[in-house]
Write a structure and sequence with these properties.
This protein is of the alpha+beta class. It is built from 25 helices and 27 strands. Helix content is 30%, strand content 19%. Strand 8 and strand 9 (293-296) form a beta hairpin.
Amino acid sequence: GFGAGYAFARDAICEIAGRFVTVRAERSRFFPATDLVDYGPSRTTNLDSDFFWQRLLDAELVEHELALPAPLGPTAATRELVQGYVLGYNRYLSDTGVDNLPDPRCRGREWVRPITEQDIWLRAMHWNMWRSSGGMVTQIVAAAPPPASATATSPPAPGARRARRGVSAPPAGRFLDADPIVRFAQGVDPTLGDGAGSNMMAIGADGTDNGRGMLFANPHWYWNGPERWYEIQLTVPGRLNVTGIQTMGVPVIQTGFTDGVAWAGTSSFATRYTPYELTLVPGESTSYLYDGATQRMTPNTVTIQVRQPDGALQPRSHTFWETRFGPMIQSDQFVWNGGTGYAFKDVGATFRWVSQQFELNHAQSVGDISEGGKRYMAIGWRNLQAADANGDVFYGDRTAVPHVTDEMVERCVTGALGRQLLSRSLLVLDGSRSACEWGTDPDAPVPGIMSARRLPELHRRDYVSQSNDTHWLNNANARLEGYPLIMGAERTQRSLRTRNGLLKIERRLAGTDGRPGRTFTLDTFIDTVMDQRVLSAELWKPQVVRVCESMDPATEVAPACPILEAFDGTETVESRGAVLWRRFVERLGTENSLYTTPFDPDDPVGTPSGLVTTDSRVETALQAAVQDLVGSGMPLDATYRTYQWTDKNGVHIGVPGGSASLGQYTIVSSDAFQPGVGWGHVGDRRTGSSFIMWMQFTPQGPVGRSVMTYSQSPNPDSPYYLDQTVMYQDGAHKPMRYTEFDILADPGVREEGIECAISPVERSRCQ
């Protein structure tokens, strides 16, 4: 851990130092209280963020978990890793000094300070709560008892909500879908949108040229800020050798490979929390009924320090209201009034996942990956896929999922809001009955979560593929069905991105993709994945061209027809027609009524398909797209090199890829279309393809290629600030130097010897 902490601090201390300020509840001490916290999961103010984290600090969650034996608490090896990481980080800061940091963005800033082991555990908890309470900071802080006038409102008679069960609720509409509490349950990160998620493919012995496993990983994530990935290799001779990427500030590798196995993660669709609907005691907005008895909420007041305009610090307090389930919440849809309120129960407030992930860093087979996950079931929101040197591949959900069975859903989702939200993957449970508390499996590592036997997994010898859909379809020839509703929907339409990925594999194995043979080599793996093919063009382009050619000349779309005809259906930076096609589909949309062949659960990869060319929306969208470009001076055959780009130190770099909603596989979140500008700048808070890795096991060991789309260093003065971004623009990649021989053969390699200890007391902890 020491070397990793030292190297990371040297490369990216400015990115993570602010995140440590966040988890210490000190943002308002150093930054304006009303400013927004940069980079998700909750786009909230510094003040609200500090209140949220001070609540967790006061609860001593870290101290409690550290006191537990493994696997409930961290393993001895994980504790040593964190200790070493902290020592390495602090050693770099001590050696260099804040005033001499190479990155001008945080040089001399008072908020760049030494870190503690608690900071690392809190940062790990921050990551694990990304799709649960970490994304609900504003809604948790906003919860306050209603005014006295609202308190006078009587709640429904006991059992009234249950008696109405089965009555159709009014459509919730877009206002319900806009609520963050709802959107996170649907697998949508409100701060990331279309650019969030990941792709991964694992190819087994039946699909590779040498009978050994291959893995592709492509997390779609932030391009800037403290959530960027950091590529690193960890080697302890005789004990550990693993390469891949880390979450900044957490010293385990989350996607990567060892000598024997490679793994990656995508966002799991399973819900990590449940709101509980409370029936309030008439006239007492801070008391609720539970099995017929009154239970009082507990006021929990926290205090933080807030910097004033003159630089002085003043205390500021806030009161949370705690229930047996968790804190009260408040949003546009989850309203605390005189009769009803909502509490929030979260499975993610833990850092047990660090030990689970560190065990993956030692794994040597798919079996190790699968069995290691069962011991912890702690990762907050990421599926696993793996491929090993024996040619086995695996998909599995080894995450913490609330123990809410379908039978419990039947009897415990009783309110009108809960019924509306069932179709949106959010389970709002009845908080008035003990029978609606989360259950427990005897073989689960902790109470309240599902054991591994209830969660989906798939072992294959051909392939598995995941692109942020539910567990149902990870292989075109194998369905995972019969799992709890809380895991996500089955036998439902898959995204165009999921279908695109499955088609890439199926066509390669069938030998119908235009490449020689029927198996993957590492080169064909790279070419197949990175062809930038957009599925909407494959499904619709021939029909759209015919519509274009038949339109009234007065519509002035005729010049677009040959460009669409010649469009190769990809979104590279040189693809002529890609800009026009994307704008057309953005104007048209991809709703199901536009398809001639509807979704068929028995053909989920091939349907829906076809275009209803008689629908007037097609001509309207095409005419509007042409006018969007021509009317703002953009060529109809414009390319992404000009109209989707990033800027690094004044260097204009085109960015390939596009929107998942159009069926692009390697997605990128850019600005909304602007006339004359296109989709413009990718960067700032934008997301999309980040670290991209292809690897294959060979008789000589693992061989990998990778590219970091935004480059390794966030420091604009570094030579590694833009080099890989240019690679990505050009469709290039670099070798992953894994063996000691390959590493030492790198002309840029530099060896440094750094004494671990900062003080005699710490020297013993470096051994």
